[in-house]
Amino acid sequence: MRSSAALAPGSSIDIAAQEEAMARSMWRITLQRLKRSKTAMIGLTIVILLLLVALLADVVAPYSPTETTPASISPPTWQNLMGTDLLGRDVLSRVIHGSRVSVYVGVVSILFAIFIGIPLGTVAGFYGGHVDQVIMRLMDIILAFPIFLLAIVIMVILEPNTTNVVLALAIVRIPILARIVRGSVLSVKETEYIEAVKALSLSQIRVLGRHVLPNCLAPIIVTSTLNIGNAIIIEASLSFLGLGTQPPTPTWGWDLKQNLTLIELNPWITIFPGLAILVTVLAFNLLGDGLRDALDPRLKA
Question: What stretches pass through the bilayer (predicted)?
């Protein structure tokens, strides 16, 4: 415990200043570690390029993704770098525009899950008791179902479209984030630092927002980054089953399904959408692994 002088009136200013200085130091060290990780930098570079391609798809893509031509099932040429599909559409243009759906669904669904999961996990971990029991039992019920199966059930109940895919993926991710946040809050709230803050008679909301949650950011950031890649895989799988974003909007999963019968004689039609999924998920996983190593408290001096 801190001395009584540390808990005297006005000491909250000193604690806040110390906390801010420690936070700046921690993130500075984290950034340095992240820069030293080659795999994390590769993942970050690919993620940034993917975001730029998704945002500038209309400018980057050489053709409209829905434009059909008589040159169907054409192999890669200088005119069509990834060839054309069964309807004569440019595969490269469809891969580029398909990145929009994947990035949107992956990022927005995780943000939605964070928006719901963090408050639930924080309240459960900080207050405990019956509140904790009720919240975590609800989370356990959702986690009792396989993630992909639950996403399929939700999409069968709802109308297949991009918005509902985001909703379905957010629902299956909320319990994971809630449990991680709860565990972090349980660990942080027992530290001497938080006990000292509580002794200052600050409001519980301020204690949570200013002192508890900032110390739980590391696992939230790592888990969220890794889950974006997983969300992209599930989105592609739902589109493959016809339960995701509907045509004519291009998606990587739908392009895989639509041209699957041509894979033996015309493999480029399915290889490139498949590679797009592989590279995207790998990039987010590399970045997530790098963040985990950089934020791991066991690596701190």
Answer: 40-61, 101-126, 138-158, 164-181, 216-245, 265-288
